Amino acid sequence: MDLGAITKYSALHAKPNGLILQYGTAGFRTKAEHLDHVMFRMGLLAVLRSKQTKSTIGVMVTASHNPEEDNGVKLVDPLGEMLAPSWEEHATCLANAEEQDMQRVLIDISEKEAVNLQQDAFVVIGRDTRPSSEKLSQSVIDGVTVVGGQFHDYGLLTTPQLHYMVYCRNTGGRYGKATVEGYYQKLSKAFVELTKQASCSGDEYRSLKVDCANGIGALKLKEMEHYFSQGLSVQLFNDGSKGKLNHLCGADFVKSHQKPPQGMEIKSNERCCSFDGDADRIVYYYHDADGHFHLIDGDKIATLISSFLKELLVEVWWGDWLPSKTRLSEIVPVYCTKTGVKHLHHKAQEFDIGVYFEANGHGTALFSTAVEMKIKQSAEQLEDKKRKAAKMLENIIDLFNQAAGDAISDMLVIEAILALKGLTVQQWDALYTDLPNRQLKVQVADRRVISTTNAERQAVTPPGLQEAINDLVKKYKLSRAFVRPSGTEDVVRVYAEADSQESADHLAHEVSLAVFQLAGGIGERPQPGYKAAETTHINNAFGPGTANEHTVPKQCRDGSRSFAKETRALRMRSALASHRKLIMIN
Ligand code: 16G
Ligand code: MG
Questions:
Q1: Same domain? 290 vs 356
Q2: Structurally, how many domains does the chain consist of?
Q3: Domain containing residue 491
Q4: Which residues of 116-154 are buried (b: 16+ CB within 10 A; e: fewer)?
Q5: pLDDT of 455-472, one tens digit each?
Q6: Residue 548 maps to a domain
Q7: From the CA of 543, how far away is ligand 2's center (Å)?
C-alpha cells in the first residue's frame, strides 16, 4: 500500500470532524453531503476485502427508499450476499477514523484479516438515480484506485442487479453473464418459457401497472420490457420523468400508508405493484369493487411462491423421491430470524430450497446446488406431467435472483405464477386474512437499552418490560405484541395485533407507554389515536412476515377462516423451506 498516496487522496475526501456513522443493516445511510469520505474509504475497504477473498466485491451507492437528499453505500460479498459481520465492524471503524488515524485503522484491518496485499483486487460499482450518486460513486473509484484495485463501473443499476453481477463474476459465468444484457436475457427467457405454458391467455392476466418510485427501477424496466413483452405488458408510473424519488410513491410509501402511490389511476380489481427506490422491494395492491384498497405484502408473496413451488415439487417427486406416506404437514418448517435481509438470507441458505420475504416486500428464493441438479436431472429423465413440472421448476430457478431480493425478478415470478395458476389478484389475496395490527415507534434516549431474544419477539432488558407487555397482551383477544430497537432509525419499534383494529390500536398504544416509561422515553408521551405519519417508519419492517416474523401464528389465530383452510394456506406457504426433508427422506 502506498500510504503517502492514501493520505494525500484521503485529504481530498476529508471526514467532517466528529461525524460518527454506523454500518447498519443496509450499509451506511445519511444525508448525501456527509458521505464523500465514507465512499472513498469504502473503496479502500472493498479492495482489502477483494484481496482477502480473492474475489470480486461490489459497492452499491444508494439509499433505497430514503428521501432523495439522502444517500448510502453498501458492500456486496463474493456470492452476492451482504458483507460479513466482522467486516461491517471494520467498515464502521474505517468510516469513523479521524483523518490522522485512517492509515493506522487500514493497516490494523489488513493485519487482523490477514490480507495479502500483493493479491490482485477487483471491485464492481453501481449506483441509483439520486443526483448525488454519480459524484459519490466517483469517490468510491478514487478509493479503489489509490490502493491499486481494478474496477468496473456499471453506472446506473438496481441494487439487485449489482448483487447479480458480483455473483456471476465469482462463479465463472455459471450463474449468468455479468452484464445488464445478460441479466435481462436470463430472466426474460425463463419468464417467457414459463408463461408459454399458461392456459389462460386473457389480457386480464397479462397486464400490470408498476409504480417505479421515480427511481432506477423505471429505467431498467424500460430497457428490459421488450425482452418479456410477449408474456406481460407493463404500464409504468412514477418513472422519474417528473416526480421526486420515493416522494408519495414507491413500495415503502404504499406499505406504510396503506394507500396507492400518487400519480397512479387504479380501476377496480386492476393488478398494481410498487418498487422501492433501488428496486429491491416489491408490494402488490388493488382496489376492490367498493373502492377499498387492499395491500398484498411480502407475506402473501411468500405464500404464493411457496405454495406454487410445493405443488411442482410434489408433482415431480410424490411417491418417488418423496414417499407417498409422508404427510405434507410434517415437511413444512417455518423459521423466524432477527430483522434484516442478511439474517433471512443466511437462514434460507440452510435449506435445499428456502423462500424468505419481509412484509416490506424484500425477498427471494434460494436453491441449493444439489436440488438444482436433481431438478435438471428430473427434467431430462422423467416423462409427461412430471417432466413438465420439472421443466417449470428449472425455469423458475432461473427467474429468481438468488443473490438478493429483486423487485423485477420477483414481479416476473409472481406474474408467471398468477398466469400459470389462472389466479386473479383477489384470489391471491384471499389465501389468508391478516389479523388487524398496528405498528408504532417510540422515541427513547438510548434505544440500546432494549435488548431482545427469540428472533426479537421477547424483550430481555430493560427489566420488567417483557412482563408489562405480557400483562397488556392478556387483556385482548388473539393478541400479541413485540418491541425492538430499530436498526435504521433512532427509535424503538412497537408492533401489536388483536382481534379488532380498535384492540390492536389500544394494545399498541399501551405497549408504547410501557416502552416510554421503562426504556427512557423522551419528548412527548405516546398519545392514543394514530395518524398515518406516526405509523410510518423508514422500512416498516416489524411484525409478522417481516424480517423476523412470518405470518404463521397470525394466520392460525384468524377467526374469520376455518382452521382447515388456514392450515392449508400455512402449509402451502412454508412447504418450500421443508424441502431439505425431501432430500433427507431420499
Ligand atoms: C434495512 C434492511 C431490511 C430491514 C430494515 C429494518 C437490508 C437490505 N435492508 O432496510 O431488511 O427490514 O432495515 O429497519 O438489509 P428497521 O430496523 O429500522 O425497522
Ligand atoms: Mg431498497
A1: no
A2: 4
A3: 437-519
A4: eeeeebbbbbbbbbbebbeebbbbbbbbbbbbebebebb
A5: 999 999 999 999 999 999
A6: no
A7: 18
